Amino acid sequence: MKTKLDYLRDIGLDDILSDDLVRKIKVEEYEKGDIMEMEAFQSGKVWKILEGQAKMTIYMEHGGEYYGDFTTGEWMGVAACLIDLVGTVDIEAKKKTKVIVIPLTEMIRNHPEVMQHLWEKIAKGSALEFVRVLGGTLAKAVLSNEGYFLKYLSQNNMRIRFTNTRELSELLNTNLRTLQRIIRKLREDGVIEKSRNEIWVVDKEKFEAALISQTEKF
């Protein structure tokens, strides 16, 4: 089993951090549904996902809501450490998830010798974070529930595995009844098939036609 130093070695930090900084860096594990951090933008920390998947939800003061899904190898919270962002942010584990938590703001302020080794990774992490949040928010905003479901299916190689339909509805941010109606319709149309814990495409041509028709509505 990997140790904290093993993960730091993977990032390229194992031999440049002081013992004090190493102690402040944490490796944490969460079960599906756990809240990993509330008000994350205020913490000065960043999270690199070592295993699993997490969802970031941003609640802005004006009432807007934005979100993005993050997976293994990706960073969360980078942008908030670099610029002032207003809003409340929750991070939730979407499945069993392991992260390494780094006090980035403190490192920027007090350890420039460390940051010179991290800036390229942090810049890429910040850019990807923006893409994840913007992509997740826009996809949900411009597509119907059916279109969003089809897009998610496409992004997962035409096959989705899940524990139960309620779990899938939470993952897709779609009402359970609405999702059940979508699945029933697509099965009747011969687009997909479903077992107890899996949904897959049975006719790629019908699937592509259905996805295009949903996209063209917006």
From TrEMBL:
Q: Does the record carry Magnesium as a key word?
A: no
Q: Which GO terms describe its molecular function?
A: DNA binding
Q: Which residues form the Cyclic nucleotide-binding domain?
A: 12-102
A Pfam family cross-referenced in the UniProt record is HTH_Crp_2
Q: Which Gene3D superfamilies match?
A: Jelly Rolls, Winged helix-like DNA-binding domain superfamily/Winged helix DNA-binding domain
Output one GO BP term: regulation of DNA-templated transcription
Keyword set includes Metal-binding: no
Keywords, alphabetical: DNA-binding, Transcription, Transcription regulation
Q: Which SUPFAM superfamilies match?
A: cAMP-binding domain-like, Winged helix' DNA-binding domain
Q: What is this protein called?
A: Cyclic nucleotide-binding domain-containing protein
Q: Write down the species.
A: Propionigenium maris DSM 9537
